Please model this.
Amino acid sequence: MNKSLPKQVQAFLNGQDFDQKKELAMYFVTVDDEGFPYKAMISVGEVIALDETTLRIALWEHSKSASFTKQAKKATLFLVLPPTAYDLQLTVTYVRTEAGQVIFEGALKQVKVDEAPYATIVSSVQCRFKEEQQTVQQWSMKHKLLKK
Model:
């Protein structure tokens, strides 16, 4: 385990080439009021790597994920970039609320890298957006907020 983003993850979360990354989803997991893991699915349009140890995340303002993240101040971002799975453990700080988005900054605490010697990970969580062009436009707006 290490404490900086692997180059492949940095490239994936660099805020560029949305069209090539739009079908890959990630799990953003925090803890609910009862201490159980609470999962949200997020996309590259909602996360950006500011550098090798810092992420910015945009969550919907009235979502349970935003509320639980504010309370827990910890989260894990799970992503798969075949053939590797990554768990990014974050200490999370509230930055601001703007344009219906709650902006958080995640300081990387630890990265867990999973590759099995007996199997190859071939896919991630994938999705197709019903309004693809509109979604990519929204991501551009969110990334402007994240870079502020």
Q: What stands out?
A: The radius of gyration is 15 Å. The mean pLDDT is 91. The CA atoms of residues 30 and 36 lie 8 Å apart. The helical segments are 7-12, 18-21, 64-72, 132-147.
